[in-house]
């Protein structure tokens, strides 16, 4: 059945200029560390995870960033604000490198904030962006997912500009992992890295999964998604699921704001919402740093050898 499209909404621009970053989650998987510190502020070496996400948006040409926050998230706002006393202290000591790193986050983008109020799911978090986004397509970047480069998001923006509708990022996962994601049924297109999404199931069992193509934390949403989210009832987990809204749009004609395409991930993705993957991410990023790799890599080799020999 086709979606009941709100035809009173103005026609949207094809240009994606704004990014929405949901950051209102409680971070319960990282307790007690996240009791007073937002999970988005957990460091990947010496930079909070959420800064990598904002940098990705900026590298893709999106300089207007809206954070969807909640209670106890003030440190996110502080991080992207100026810290004048700290800057003055570093300048007085002549520590120019540290001064540049401190100013970097506040100079990245125009960062705005709105509170979700209560955690009612990703779909509700996206709905909180409606007043800021207006009637234009926009990107959604989840802070748990770090993508190796901005190429994926740039490609998704290109697909939106060419075809309209909404676009999701897809990654092929192992069968035992499909229950952790929203999974898509897809049909190929003339472009090797682009598919048409025909069905979406949120966290299915292996038997119910339409494929092994899982949605990861990057979306380009047509503004019509807001009309759909307003009437989307709570789904799995009692939350308003963005996946449910995208499924309705996938069944709608592109000229009516519908249609969903998927861009297949070719690079690497890091899931910092999982403890083991978070640790792997920190190690991986540290080993890429020239100032750390020279000391860290020999230690890691020695550590692995000790584990293989049964020594502590």
From TrEMBL:
Q: Which Pfam families match?
A: NTP_transferase
What InterPro entries does this protein's entry cite? GalU_uridylyltTrfase_bac/arc, NTP_transferase_dom, Nucleotide-diphossugar_trans
Q: Does the keyword Nucleotidyltransferase apply?
A: yes
Lineage, top-rank taxon, reads Bacteria
The reply to whether Nucleotidyltransferase figures as a keyword in the UniProt entry is: yes
Give one GO molecular function term. Answer: UTP:glucose-1-phosphate uridylyltransferase activity
Q: Where is the Nucleotidyl transferase domain?
A: 18-279
Q: What reaction(s) does this enzyme catalyze?
A: alpha-D-glucose 1-phosphate + UTP + H(+) = UDP-alpha-D-glucose + diphosphate
Q: What are the EC numbers?
A: 2.7.7.9
Q: What class of enzyme is it?
A: transferase
What is the protein name stated in its UniProt record?
UTP--glucose-1-phosphate uridylyltransferase
- Species the sequence originates in: Nocardiopsis alba
According to the entry, what is the taxonomic lineage of the organism? Bacteria, Bacillati, Actinomycetota, Actinomycetes, Streptosporangiales
């Amino acid at each position: 059945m086709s979606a009941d499209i709100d035809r009173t909404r103005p026609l949207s621009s094809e240009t994606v200029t704004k990014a929405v970053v949901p950051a209102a989650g409680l971070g319960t998987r990282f307790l007690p560390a996240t009791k007073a510190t937002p999970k988005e502020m957990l460091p990947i070496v010496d930079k909070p995870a959420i800064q990598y996400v904002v940098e990705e948006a900026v590298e893709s040409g999106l300089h207007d960033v809206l954070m969807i926050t909640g209670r106890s998230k003030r440190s996110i706002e502080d991080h992207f604000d100026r810290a004048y006393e700290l800057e003055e202290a570093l300048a007085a000591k002549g520590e120019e490198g540290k001064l540049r790193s401190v100013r970097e986050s506040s100079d990245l983008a125009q960062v705005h904030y709105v509170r979700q109020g209560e955690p009612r799911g990703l779909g509700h978090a996206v709905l909180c962006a409606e007043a800021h986004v207006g009637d234009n397509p926009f990107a959604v970047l989840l802070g748990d997912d770090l993508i190796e480069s901005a190429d994926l998001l740039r490609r998704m923006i290109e697909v939106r500009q060419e075809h309209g509708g909404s676009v999701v990022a897809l990654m092929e996962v192992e069968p035992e992992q499909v229950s952790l994601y929203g999974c898509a049924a897809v049909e190929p297109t003339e472009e090797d890295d682009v598919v048409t999404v025909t069905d979406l199931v949120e966290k299915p069992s292996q038997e119910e999964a339409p494929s092994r193509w899982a949605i990861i934390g990057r979306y380009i949403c047509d503004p019509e998604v807001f009309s759909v989210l307003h009437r989307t009832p709570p789904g799995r987990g009692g939350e308003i699921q963005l996946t449910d809204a995208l499924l309705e749009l996938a069944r709608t004609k592109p000229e009516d704001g519908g249609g969903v395409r998927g861009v297949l991930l070719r690079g690497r993705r890091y899931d910092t919402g999982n403890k083991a993957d978070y640790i792997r991410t920190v190690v991986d990023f540290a080993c890429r740093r020239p100032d750390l790799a020279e000391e860290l890599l020999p230690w890691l080799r020695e550590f692995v050898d000790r584990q293989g020999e049964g020594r502590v």
